[in-house]
Amino acid sequence: ALELIDFKNALEQFQNLVENMIIQKTKESSGLYTKDDDEIDYDKFYTTTRTLFGPAVKDQNIQAFFRKIMSNLDERPEWLEIFGCFKEESDGMSSPSKESMVFLVSEKQQITHSVVKRKDVIKGIVKVPLLHLTVTASQRGVLTVFSKQKFSYSFYFHQDTAWINGCDFLPNLNYVVAVTESTVILWDYKSKESQSDGFVIKPMKNCLLCVCTVTMADNLAKDTILMGDDKGYVYLLTITSDDFIMKQSKAEKESQFKVLDSEFFDIPKRKLHDDWVGKIKYFSALKRFGSCSTDSTNSFVLDYIKRLEDHLPVKEFSVPNGVNAFTYCGKAKVIVTGG
C-alpha cells in the first residue's frame, strides 16, 4: 500500500512537471516567457524524472519522451510511455533485469500479412493454444486463421449491411464461428474447395453482439456456443456434425456457404440484462459463464449455463454505468471487471 501511495505521488509530480514544461514552451514560442531559475530544460527534466522513478525508467525513454513533447505541444504523450511500453524494436536482450520495474513488456511479433482493408477494423481475435492457431474477424467480413507454420487462411464473408461483431473457434467441429447482426457464420477454414466452405444460420431475430465457445471435457462431434444480443438476451446454441447434413437447405450464390434455418434449432435464451450484452465468456475452471452489460442494475452475471434453460435466480451484481469488460484469474481466484 505504501509503494502504491508513493507511486501515485511520484506520478502526480511527474504530470505536473510535464504540464509546467508545456506551459513554459508554449509561452516561449509566443515570446511571452522570461527565463528564470525555474526554467525546465532537458537536464532538469531528466534529473527530476530520475529522482521520482529511480531505476524504473531508462535514459533513452526519458529522452524519447522529452523529444515527443518538444516536437508537438498539442499532442501530449501518455505518462506510461516514460516506462518504455511502446517499444518498436528489440535489441535481443530480454532478461528480467532489463525490464521495466513498473510494466513488464514481453517481446512482440508483428504480422505483416494484410488482413483487413482500408476503413475496416478487427472485431475479434482468439488464440487456439492446442492447435497453435490465432483467429481474427474484421468488421466488414474478413475471417482469418493464422497458424504457427506461418500459413494463413482467409475468407471474405460477403454481406450487404451486416457487420461481424465477434468470433471464436469450435474445437470439436474444427470450425470458426462468427456472429453478425442477424446470422451465425460457421466457416470450415480447412476446406480445399476453390471457394470457402461453411454454413450460415439465419435469421436471428435480434442483433447479435458477441459469441464464445463453451469448452467441455468430452470429445464428441458437437460444440456449444453462447451469444449475446442488443436486447440483453443470452443464447445457448449446440451444434453437431449431424446438423450440417440434416438441416442444410441451399448454398449462397456468392460462396459455398449453405443456409441452416434457425427455426430448426433449439436455441434457449434468457434476458439477463436491460441493455446490450457487451461481452460473454465461458470459464471452464469455474464451469460457469460470465456476461456483462452497460446496464447499471444487472451489470455482470456469473452462473451455470443451465440457468439459461430455467427461470431460477442468477448470480449478478450491479456497477454504476455497467461493465464493459471482465476476465478471470485462476491463480488468484478473482474476477476483475472494467466499467
Automatic annotation (TrEMBL):
Keywords: Repeat. The keyword Cytoplasm does not apply. InterPro entries: WD-EF-hand_domain, WD40/YVTN_repeat-like_dom_sf, WD40_repeat_dom_sf. The keyword Magnesium does not apply. PANTHER family: WD REPEAT-CONTAINING PROTEIN 64, WD40 REPEAT DOMAIN 95. This is WDR64 protein. It comes from Promerops cafer (Cape sugarbird). The gene is Wdr64_0.
